[in-house]
Design brief:
heterodimer; A: 269 residues; mainly alpha; Cytochrome Bc1 Complex, Chain D, domain 2; two-stranded antiparallel ribbon; 2 strands; 1% strand; elongated; B: 543 residues; Cytochrome Bc1 Complex, Chain C; 10 strands; Cyt_c-like_dom_sf (chain A); Cytochrome bc1 complex cytochrome c subunit (chain A); respiratory chain (chain A); translocase (chain A)
């Protein structure tokens, strides 16, 4: 103890005490602070929230309000969650081109990094569904047949048997699901964008969602085979009827005209 | 000729003759063949539309027989273990299971199924066009009214045979269609629920309807249709075929080629062409992919649930009808479904009874074997066009969701357009068609009197430019003026010379009015007379 007390007037004593105090405070903080807010993450998160806020102010605030609180032109985004942002911006629906019955998917104008920043900002406004991981929407361990049953029970009444889309009232529509990324399908079910009802995990478990995605990939994916030949849009009897009239009966009438034009010649006597 | 010689000759007869002789002695086909082999048929492509119907009907029967070998008309629940992965392990009826089996595991099963279904759509489309050909050319007139009704019945029965067949696989789409039908049956006041329970053997869907529809689809309706087809053909033979007006063609002859050998060869070849086209369509394009629709469960439904095209107009009726209903004393009358159910047969009957209305208006009791050109009968043509437009409006209504998504329209606007169009479009089409017909009649008259515009411009010595009109050939002149024009039937004076009033029935007044509308000044252009023609062509120069 004597050693310590003799050096208490040392010019560097204050610095040492300060360092010790900082280490103690830092150590205590790192022990007591929530694990999800680990130091390194914290800085990246707050950085992307800042970046997201800037992007939001430029691209979204005119309708959704400067703080995402919403306005007469767009709903409040407090509590919609990162998944909603990732879906709406990631499919090009947002930013919207013009108001209308429904905002259609179009060219995506933000990079995935920017979308993540926007999502981080919106998520910071209030808790909501998070962006699913590949593990949640990936094909591993899914049951296609179960997914088909779930799809026919919950989705087909708007999106058609195999997800070809369908009409809703007043110009609204359920879009064709061909070529939609599994992540976006998952997010749509989770968040219920625009006119779609939401299917949170309490209604449709994460496993069920994965099954539905796997079913859609099997029946409406890029390498889906159509065993019967041309699908004719997969729309059912309307396009089949049109095809029967135009190509079926049309060809038969053409053949009839051709046969009738070749009549037997009477023998010259 | 002595008996001896006769015997010798008989011994030397070739084998073919012997067989023919044997058969003739027992079946008497010689006299039948002799009288019918030289039966004459006129040549025109539109006369072959009926053949398309006949051949597609035969194709449907042949492929249908093949399908019955593998189809199980049962609603017992089974688990799917076939080769289509996305349905494996699903519960489904045996009917659906066996249709999946036909589609994926029976050799050639899917192709035969698709030929069967495509042929059904084409059969009905061909009947529709055939019927319209008969309608617009006036081929339904005496003596063919009964055959017109046979044909009409074939069309209606074809619709219901198609509907019952479409329902057999018990997939989600057809199950929705059967549910639709059940709803329509339920909407009938008082007896609706009883009828529904009778039809389905209890509460919908029950376990019976596939087996019942199966009997109706493969036995009852096709049996009746086959009988009607035979009757239809016998009557075509008996009446002889109609023909278009032309030089050498009269109401008392038929100009064309004999049945044997020309038409037998042509018809036989045409059968294979029809079969080929339908098989090609079936090989190219998918129809009713039940694997994509999945098995029927009453708690499921899909958008885009329409019936096959021939039932589409009934779908249209129900889709555009406002959902009215009346409640009194605890009973509900669902007008939103019941009114369409009433209009459904009326749409069909409207075209079926037309021939009888026309013959009543004209009062013409003569036989007609020369066809009309549609333009020469503007009122009939306008009525037919109006009916087709009416039918088409209903088809648009039936597919309103597909129209909405593919043309980016609001389904509500389409529904309202169909509501208005249901009443307005046929009237507009009637007026427009009639005017077009009259315009074409004027053009014909002009051609007869002034000749064909040759497109050659001639400059006369004094500087005037004229277009040279080439006179038509004698044949063309005949064809353009062969049609008969009716005079409007007048009631005549209702008061005779002594001032005594004659009683005129309301029906007579109506008939006179209709007759005026049909054949009055506004409704036909008088065809050129011989005098007019002579006066104009006798050298007064160009007009």
């Amino acid at each position: 103890m004597k050693k310590l007390s003799t050096r208490r007037r040392h010019p560097l004593a204050a610095v040492v005490v300060l360092l010790l105090a900082l280490a103690a405070a830092g150590g205590a903080f790192s022990l007591l602070a929530p694990a999800s807010k680990a130091q390194a993450d914290e800085s990246a998160q707050s950085l992307s929230i800042d970046e997201g806020k800037k992007l939001f102010a430029v691209g979204c605030a005119s309708c959704h309000g400067t703080g995402g609180q919403g306005s007469s032109d767009g709903p409040s985004l407090v509590g919609v969650g990162a998944a909603a942002v990732d879906f709406q911006v990631g499919t090009g629906r947002m930013p919207a081109q013009q108001p209308g019955a429904q905002i259609p998917a179009k060219k995506v104008i933000y990079s995935q990094a920017e979308i993540d920043q926007l999502a981080a900002y919106i998520a910071s406004l209030g808790a909501g569904p998070v962006i699913p991981t590949k593990n949640e929407y990936g094909p591993a361990g899914s049951d296609i047949a179960k997914g088909g049953e779930l799809f026919r029970t919950n989705c087909a009444q708007c999106h058609n048997f195999t997800g070809k889309g369908g009409a809703l009232t007043h110009g609204k529509f359920a879009p064709d699901l061909e070529g939609v990324a599994p992540k976006h399908i998952y997010e749509a079910m989770q968040t219920g964008p625009q006119n779609m009802p939401s299917f949170p995990d309490t209604t449709l478990s994460s496993k069920n969602k994965k099954d539905i995605i796997a079913y859609l990939d099997a029946v409406n994916g890029d390498d889906t085979e159509s065993p019967g030949g041309l699908e004719l849009g997969g729309l059912g009897p309307v396009s089949e009827g049109l095809f029967a009239w135009i190509f079926g009966l049309g060809a038969l009438i053409a053949v009839a005209v051709w046969v009738a034009a070749r009549t037997a010649k009477a023998k010259k006597s | 000729m002595s008996t001896n010689e006769n015997n010798e000759r008989r011994d030397k007869a070739p084998a073919g003759e012997k067989i023919a002789d044997w058969a003739d002695g027992r079946l008497g086909i010689y006299s039948l063949a002799k009288s019918n082999m030289r039966k004459i048929f006129p040549d025109h492509w539109s006369f072959m539309l009926g053949e398309v119907c006949l051949y597609s009907f035969i194709i449907i029967i042949l492929t249908g027989v093949y399908l019955t070998l593998f189809f199980h008309p049962s609603m017992n629940e089974v688990t799917y273990h076939g080769s289509y992965v996305p349905l494996q392990g699903q519960l489904m009826s045996e009917a659906f299971n066996s249709t999946m089996h036909i589609s994926f595991d029976v050799r050639g099963g899917l192709l035969i199924r698709q030929i069967h279904h495509w042929a059904a759509l084409i059969f009905l489309a061909a009947m529709f066009v055939h019927m319209m050909r008969v309608f617009f050319t006036g081929a339904f007139r005496k003596p063919r009214e009964v055959n017109w009704l046979f044909g009409f019945l074939l069309f209606v029965l074809g619709m219901f045979t198609g509907f019952t067949g479409y329902s057999l696989p018990d997939d989600l789409l057809s199950g929705t269609g059967v549910r639709f039908m059940e709803g329509a049956v339920l909407s009938v006041p008082i007896v609706g629920t009883y009828l529904s329970f009778f039809l389905f053997g209890g509460e919908f869907p029950g376990g019976d309807f596939v087996a019942r529809f199966y009997s109706i689809h493969i036995l009852l309706l096709p049996g009746i249709m086959l009988g009607l087809v035979v009757g239809h053909l016998i009557l075509v033979f008996y009446h002889k075929h109609t023909q278009f007006a032309g030089p050498g063609k009269t109401n008392n002859n038929v100009v064309g080629m004999p049945l044997l050998p020309v038409y037998m060869a042509k018809a036989g070849g045409f059968f294979f062409l029809v079969f080929g086209v339908i098989a090609a369509v079936a090989a190219i394009a998918s129809i009713n992919p039940i694997w994509a629709m999945g098995p029927y469960r009453p708690d499921m439904v899909s958008t885009g649930a329409q019936p096959d095209w021939y039932m589409g107009f009934s779908e249209g009726l129900i889709r555009f009808m406002p959902g009215w209903e009346i409640n009194f004393w605890g009973h509900t009358l669902v007008l939103g479904v019941f009114i369409p159910l009433i209009i459904f047969p009326l749409v069909l009957v409207a075209i079926a009874v037309y021939p009888f209305i026309e013959s009543w208006v004209t009062g013409d009791k003569r036989e007609h074997h020369i066809l009309d050109r549609p333009r020469n009968v503007p009122t009939r043509t306008a009525f037919g066009a109006a009916w087709i437009s009416w039918y088409f409006v209903l088809l648009v209504g039936g597919g309103n969701d597909i129209w909405a998504t593919h043309f980016h329209l609001s389904i509500n606007s389409i529904t309202w357009a169909v509501r208005v169009g249901f009443f307005v479009v046929p009237v507009l089409v009637f007026i427009a068609t009639k005017r077009v017909c009259l315009g074409l009649q004027r053009r014909d008259k002009d051609k007869v009197l002034h000749g064909r515009e040759s497109g050659i411009i001639k400059r006369l010595p004094h500087g005037e430019f004229v277009e040279i009109h080439e006179p038509l050939s004698q044949d063309a002149l005949h064809t353009l003026t062969a049609h008969e024009q009716y005079e409007p039937a007048a009631i005549g004076a209702t008061v005779d010379a002594n001032g005594v009033e004659r009683k005129v029935k309301g029906s007579q007044k109506l008939r006179a009015k209709l007759s005026e509308a049909y054949y009055g000044e506004e409704s036909q252009i008088p065809k050129p007379t011989v005098e007019e023609y002579k006066e104009i062509t006798s050298g007064h120069g160009h007009h």
